[in-house]
């Protein structure tokens, strides 16, 4: 399952990030990395961009970027 | 006697209130925004404290030091290579864990460092309690709670700076896991043995080597020590790969940093985890709502333009009357001669017509500053990215584009936030389509002349929207034809909503207004004089004489007036300006422009405000004996046909911004040839669009 398949308000844990180092570092500097819990906070009408909550920060991502983030439902 | 200078490097992630902190330290003039990259330029502040001269360098906001954005590159470059005494790391207390990621990277630099836990008042409100003493112990650096907004902890911070400067540096406490520490030890030992000379510490170098930092490798590969270092590094990497189960060294160090930050937070932060929605979440639930988000944004923009026109118009009549009376008084005092004409019709009319629009400009800039400082801008980027992406633009392009509504100069500079070169060039090319504040006077003038009071705001809004939409299509075409490229990923923070600080908005708006007035006082003053001269010379004395004789001979008053009009018209048409206008008129005739409008467009290449001054001088001189009122709007209304006016607005909307903006464009685009492309691109688009507008309007009204 990847981050772009989720619905609004779902909470998941990040399992892996599959992309080049540049983007991975960028995501990392926002605190988006393996083992982190994220919540989907917003979706645009055209489903092209999502807003996620990581700890206390809110980050906007394009869906094409979100599809590179593997997640699972947290227990 | 000020000999002791303390240099401070101010580092922090975006939106942690860094610039605000600097402001509360010394009341420096600085712009603070909620969007990443407001302080791209290096800002320095000087203050005196306890016999020390403290120099603070405000480095651009960086989420990390890994060279992703230009800001991060600038910050890393400075921290690595420039001289400074102390790093002042500013953290957002309400978002400590993510902020500590940067801190851990700074700790690796192994410099004297102070940590400011900023926004501590907000953290308390959100029931986040930080044990700063414990945190100081963990980080090995003094942590001080501050609130730049409430001016809390500022004095403590200054005391600590002096204290830190006077004392020896303590060893840094950034510890990695044992596996990495072991390898660091081995490398340090080798450097010690070889007595390697460097201005960095051995530990620093060792960490950089393990992190595969390219610059450090470049440094070492030119040194004989490299031969001894290489096998040790090989061994070290082998160990790490086995231990962490990955060959990606960045992943290894990122995990280390993350564990460090998380550990520090668990040990020092107590948070009452309330499920209650924060204020920001409540706002977001409708401001970035699936259906309502965009309409709300459009409504806000519409409201801004309505305000710009409605409120801006109130003092306009006063200012207009004020300058008209000055012109009259000057002429009365000096009499009708060359001097009174140059002062009245040249200087005062030219500069006055620019000052006339100051209220409009101030309101527009106020609105943009408000959007910027509250944090709403990033939401709009989020809302618009999907839409923008379809046109080949990046959601981040929105910021330079909206800034373009204010002034193209900062807009071109704001495009730096785009990392991808082609994305940036594309944005640079279409910024001009966003009508800047300087074009506003022309629109206000024409809209005021040709549309009713109650419609003016709507028409103004329409002009701006049309320009923006046209820009989007231009972007699509350019993206397909010229700037084909990979898309830059869209990953952006949505900062908390913050109440705008009145002081900061005031700074921004008053700075912009001053810049506008300065332009009116220098550039436009000079241009007005030039235009006045070009429209009054050369003199045709023989013709004037023959006209004067005719005027003397006629007894009929009406005939006299007609002759006088004919004379001034003749003089104008045969002035230097007339020659230029006449020469270029054939080019513009298909668009419905007379030679006066053509000249106005050409002088507008220098600055858009001059278009209004030129029109005011040209129509002012030509119709001096007109029986109608002397307001500029009336003159425009009586002299320009409706279709030509519409076509003129369209041309103004599209063609090249001012000279100053063009220079900045060259600087940001990086090559002169782009300006040439831009000129051809915008002028031909403007011509074609105006041509259509003129002919369609003519068809519609006939």
Question: Can you describe this structure?
Answer:
The complex is a heterodimer of chains A (75) and B (702). In chain A, 17% of the residues lie in helices and 41% in strands. Chain A has helices at 21-29, 63-66; strands at residues 11-17, 37-43, 49-54, 57-62, 69-73. A 5-stranded antiparallel beta sheet of chain A has the order 4-3-2-1-5. The longest helix of chain A has 9 residues, at 21-29. Chain A is α+β, with helices and mostly antiparallel strands. Chain A contains 2 helices and 5 strands; from the N terminus they run βαβββαβ. Chain B is an alpha/beta fold and 702 residues long. In chain B, β2 (43-49) and β3 (52-58) form a beta hairpin. In chain B, strands 2-3-1-4-5-7 form a 6-stranded mixed beta sheet, with helices on both faces. Chain B has a two-stranded antiparallel sheet with strand order 6-8. Chain B contains 32 helices and 9 strands. Chain B is elongated and about 110 Å long. Classes of the chains: A alpha+beta (75), B alpha/beta (702). Chain A: It comes from Arcobacter defluvii. Chain A: Keywords: Iron.
Number of β-strand runs of chain A: 5
Please count the helical segments of chain B: 32
Going across the major beta sheet of chain A, what is the strand order? Answer: 4-3-2-1-5
CA gyration radius of chain A, whole angstroms? 11 Å
How far apart the termini of chain B lie comes to: 80 Å
Arrangement of strands in the largest sheet of chain B:
2-3-1-4-5-7
Tell me roughly what share of residues is in helical segments of chain A.
Answer: 10-25%
Low-confidence stretches of chain B: 31-39, 622-629
The shape of chain B, in one word, is: elongated
Please summarize the sheet with the most strands of chain A. Answer: 5 strands, antiparallel
Tell me, what's the shape of chain A?
A: globular
- Which H/E pattern describes the elements of chain A? EHEEEHE
Mean pLDDT of chain B: 80
> Treating each run of at least 4 consecutive H or I residues as one helix, how many helices of chain A?
2
Strand content of chain A: 35-45%
Would you tell me the structural class of the helices and strands of chain B? Answer: alpha/beta
Average the pLDDT over all residues of chain A and give the rounded result.
Answer: 85
Pfam family, one (chain A): FeoA
GO molecular function (chain A): transition metal ion binding
Protein name (chain A): Ferrous iron transport protein A
Keywords (chain A): Iron
């Amino acid at each position: 399952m990847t981050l772009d398949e989720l619905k609004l308000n779902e909470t998941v844990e990040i399992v892996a990030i599959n992309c080049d180092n540049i983007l991975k570092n960028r995501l990392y500097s926002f605190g988006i990395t393996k083992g982190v819990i994220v919540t989907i906070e917003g979706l645009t009408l055209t489903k092209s961009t999502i807003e996620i909550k990581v700890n206390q920060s809110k980050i906007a991502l394009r869906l094409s970027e979100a599809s590179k983030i593997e997640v699972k439902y947290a227990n | 006697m000020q000999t002791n200078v303390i240099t401070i490097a101010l580092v922090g992630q975006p939106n942690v209130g860094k610039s605000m902190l600097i402001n509360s330290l010394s009341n420096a003039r600085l712009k603070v925004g909620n969007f990443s990259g407001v302080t791209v330029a290096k800002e320095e502040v000087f203050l005196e404290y306890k016999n020390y001269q403290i120099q603070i360098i405000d480095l651009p906001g960086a989420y990390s030091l890994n060279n992703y954005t230009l800001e991060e590159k600038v910050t890393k470059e400075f921290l690595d290579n420039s001289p400074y005494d102390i790093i002042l790391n500013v953290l957002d207390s309400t978002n400590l864990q993510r902020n500590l990621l940067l801190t851990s990277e700074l700790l690796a630099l192994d410099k004297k460092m102070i940590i400011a836990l900023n926004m501590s008042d907000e953290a308390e409100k959100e029931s986040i309690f930080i044990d700063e003493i414990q945190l100081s112990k963990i980080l090995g650096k003094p942590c001080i709670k501050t609130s730049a907004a409430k001016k809390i902890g500022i004095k403590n911070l200054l005391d600590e700076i002096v204290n830190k400067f006077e004392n020896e540096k303590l060893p840094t406490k950034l510890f990695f896991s044992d596996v990495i520490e072991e390898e660091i030890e081995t490398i340090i030992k080798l450097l010690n043995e070889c007595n390697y000379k460097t201005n960095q510490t051995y530990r620093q170098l060792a960490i950089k080597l393990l992190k595969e930092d390219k610059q450090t490798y470049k440094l070492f590969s030119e040194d004989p020590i490299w031969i001894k270092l290489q096998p040790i590094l090989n061994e070290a990497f082998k160990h790490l790969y086995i231990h962490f189960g990955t060959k990606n060294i960045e992943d290894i160090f990122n995990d280390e940093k993350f564990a460090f930050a998380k550990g520090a937070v668990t040990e020092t932060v107590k948070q009452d985890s309330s499920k209650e929605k924060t204020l920001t979440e409540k706002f977001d639930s409708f401001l970035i709502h699936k259906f309502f988000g965009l309409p709300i944004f459009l409504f806000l923009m519409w409201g801004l333009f309505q305000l710009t026109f409605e409120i801006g118009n109130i003092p306009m009549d006063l200012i207009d009357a004020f300058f008209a009376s000055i012109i009259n008084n000057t002429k009365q005092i000096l009499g009708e001669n060359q001097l009174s004409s140059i002062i009245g019709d040249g200087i005062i009319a030219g500069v006055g017509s620019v000052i006339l629009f100051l209220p409009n400009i101030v309101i527009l800039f106020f609105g943009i500053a408000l959007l910027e400082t509250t944090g709403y801008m990033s939401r709009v980027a989020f809302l618009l990215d999907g839409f923008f992406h379809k046109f080949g633009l990046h959601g981040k392009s929105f910021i330079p584009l909206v800034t373009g509504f204010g002034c193209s100069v900062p807009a071109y500079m704001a495009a730096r936030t785009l990392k991808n070169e082609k994305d940036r060039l594309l944005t640079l090319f279409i910024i001009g389509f966003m009508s800047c504040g300087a074009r506003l006077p022309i629109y206000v003038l024409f809209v005021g002349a040709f549309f009713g009071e109650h419609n003016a705001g709507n028409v103004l809004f329409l002009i701006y929207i049309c320009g923006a939409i046209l820009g989007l299509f231009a972007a699509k075409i350019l993206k397909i034809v010229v700037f084909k490229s990979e898309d830059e990923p869209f990953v952006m923070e949505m900062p908390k909503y913050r109440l705008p600080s009145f002081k900061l908005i005031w700074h921004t708006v008053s700075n912009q207004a001053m810049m506008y007035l300065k332009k009116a006082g220098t550039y436009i003053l000079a241009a007005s004089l030039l235009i006045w001269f070009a429209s009054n010379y050369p003199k045709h004395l023989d013709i004037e004489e023959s006209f004067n004789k005719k005027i003397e001979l006629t007894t009929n008053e009406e005939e006299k007036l007609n002759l006088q009009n004919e004379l001034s018209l003749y003089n104008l048409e045969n002035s230097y300006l007339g020659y230029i206008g006449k020469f270029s008129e054939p080019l513009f005739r298909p668009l419905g422009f007379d030679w006066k409008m053509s000249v106005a467009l050409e002088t507008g290449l220098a600055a858009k405000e001059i278009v209004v001054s030129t029109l005011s001088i040209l129509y002012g001189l030509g119709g001096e004996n007109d029986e109608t009122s002397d307001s500029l709007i009336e003159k425009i209304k009586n002299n320009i046909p409706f279709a030509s006016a519409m076509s003129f607005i369209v041309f103004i909307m599209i063609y090249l911004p001012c000279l100053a903006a063009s220079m900045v464009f060259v600087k940001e685009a990086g090559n002169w040839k782009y300006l040439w492309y831009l000129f051809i691109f915008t002028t031909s688009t403007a011509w074609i669009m105006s041509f259509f507008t003129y002919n369609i309007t003519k068809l519609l009204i006939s």
